[in-house]
Amino acid sequence: MKTLGLMVCISLVLWGCARKTAPTAAETAAKFSHYSDSEGKTIFMEKCGRCHKYRLPETRTADKWTKVIDKMAPKAKLNDDQKEAVLAFVQQYAKS
Ligand code: HEC
């Protein structure tokens, strides 16, 4: 019985760590639920959390986003339409 308790304990800890590095789809959706749905939001959620954690729209000014998206669009392999949609999304909620 003691071993079982320990096993449960260890698996909970491991599960906790795994969750930290890879948020579930539900957690990601919750993080983005206060933005209204748009093409740009969908692309952002799909492409912009791959190499680093999401840098959310309100963490940068609109001006800064223009520069950042210019740099990140090729990294995320966005075409011109996708780039424009993502830029519109982040600028809509940008820091003022
Ligand atoms: C292929 C990997 C990759 C993808 C995909 C990617 N990024 Fe990045 N991003 C990086 C790296 C590497 C850095 C840090 C080095 C740098 O600033 O160039 C970075 C830095 C950033 C920064 C900080 C830059 C600053 O000067 O403040 C922001 C904001 C950012 N990325 C947003 C995005 C957004 C938005 C997307 C989706 C369009 C995206 N990233 C997709 C690799 C990526």
TrEMBL record:
One MF annotation (Gene Ontology) recorded for this entry: heme binding
Domain of life the protein comes from: Bacteria
Protein name as catalogued: Cytochrome c domain-containing protein
Native organism: Chitinophaga caeni
